[in-house]
């Protein structure tokens, strides 16, 4: 058995509105850890039909970055890798949306 270890951390990224983006996260451990993504402290649920997709290797893919008054993908993200031995947390990565910025 091996504790989970993050082998690739997500990096800060600046993405134009409506463009795709990927935040990487890779982990190893025995048994293979499950990866969960968090945004601003909240776990991300990638529901079917969502513009956010969890990639098989562990990354988080945005079909197109959303930035509206109702919802924005801008924020602080990290991933956690968990198996029965414990949890490893990645560094924080900030996603910024470039282009028109307005105050909510």
Question: What attributes characterize this protein structure?
Answer:
104 residues; mainly beta; 6-stranded mixed beta sheet; 11 strands
Number of strands: 11
Count of helix runs: 0
Quote the beta fraction: over 45%
Q: How would you name the CATH homologous superfamily?
A: Immunoglobulins
Question: Quick one: biggest sheet?
Answer: 6 strands, mixed
Sketch the topology as an H/E string, one letter per element. EEEEEEEEEEE
Overall geometry comes to elongated
Overall SS class: mainly beta
Q: How far apart, in Å, are the first and last alpha carbons?
A: 48 Å
As a whole number of angstroms, the C-alpha radius of gyration is 14 Å
What are the segments in which pLDDT stays under 50 over at least 5 consecutive residues? none
Mean pLDDT: 93
Domain Ig-like: 4-98
Protein name: Ig-like domain-containing protein
GO molecular function: axon guidance receptor activity
Keywords: Immunoglobulin domain
Write a short abstract of this structure.
Keywords: Immunoglobulin domain. This protein is mainly beta. 0% of the residues lie in helices and 50% in strands.
């Amino acid at each position: 058995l091996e504790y989970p270890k993050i082998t690739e951390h997500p990096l800060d990224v600046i993405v134009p509105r409506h463009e795709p983006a990927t935040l990487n996260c890779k982990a190893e451990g025995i048994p293979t850890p499950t990866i969960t993504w968090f945004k601003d402290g909240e776990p991300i649920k990638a529901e079917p039909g969502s513009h956010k997709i969890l990639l098989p290797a562990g990354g988080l893919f945005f079909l197109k970055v959303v930035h509206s008054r109702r919802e924005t993908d801008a924020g602080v993200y990290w991933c956690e890798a968990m198996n029965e031995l414990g949890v490893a947390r990645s560094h924080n990565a900030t996603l910024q949306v470039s282009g028109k910025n307005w105050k909510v």
